[in-house]
Amino acid sequence: MAHGTVIVGTGQGGFQLAASLRDSDYADPITLVGDEPGLPYQRPPLSKAFLQGKVDDTGLLLRPPPFYQRIDARVLGGTRVARIDRAARGVHLSSGQTLPYDHLVLATGATARTLCVPGAGLSGVHVLRGLEDARRIREQLARARSVAVVGAGFIGLELAAVARGQGLPMHVIEATARPLLRALSEPMARHLQAFHEAQGTQFHLNTQLDAIEGEDGRATGLRLLGGGRIVADLIVIAVGVTPNDQLARDAGLAVGNGIEVDELLLTSDAAISALGDCANFPFAADGGSRVRIESVQNAVDQARCIAARLCGQPLPYAKVPWFWSEQGPCRLQMAGLAAPGDRSDIEGDPASGRFSVLRYRGDQLSAVESLNDPAAHMRARTALAPVLAPT
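RESULT FIELD:
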């Protein structure tokens, strides 16, 4: 009797794998297991449209309930995997149930980092990773007097745009010299910073948090290292994520900044694959150096790659990475992977609000950042394909 494929994780990657398997005529059982209750849903709107009240819980669903019946995939939401028994090829659930598998796929995602500072446990202090986080933040946005975000990454700046759109005082605290230091070129990052400042957001750069202050169990503001205070009753910690690799680690799989996989997305156990935010894979375009990419595109394309392999068509994973961020009216799209030392050439007029930054490693194009120019983004993906995703 075939046990089929068990997918641990009901995010975008886990969902896509189940759908792609059935699209490829995979006939064996498919089971998805996820910590969060309910069906797989979209995460990107959580920091944008969901906080604005433009989309509700139902609108976040990747597919409605009948879809899973149609593709004959079982979804076990609100279920935690306790451990993996590699020898017996079984997944032990916290309920005591065991799910046997022929192939196991770890799509466990990542967890938002927190800060170990006094006051971090006060009411009004949040992270933003899942639906429950977003619900709590949205509820408090409706009655907040002032908002502070610790971390000037994409989540922090998207949330800043939402808060300013609601007329709330907004502070962004960042430990480095500029926003999006590791994610964007300096010209694009500075342009976005100027946009947010024009909207009224105050940046506190080269600044670290000393403590979160509170009264009667509720946050009232931030105390900064070196002096200074910021009044805020809604505080979001947005300082990145940590890959969920403990399950793999406990099972004896190779782990290092995520679950290590090969070019076929197989772990050190040939019966187990990993994909998405939790997977650390060799990036062919950079000589096989290992990367871990946190994006919907990466999770979706890796799911399709694994589905093809499980259906008898193995191919190395090689796709052009691409990303996006919406910050108010600013639609930022990125293709490729730049390194800190890559050269930045501006194409177009930043003053128009529509331009691109081309990144070069030597004479080789490595990435393109496009603001409010979808056509330029698509051209970039086409131009990068022979370099980053050779056929």
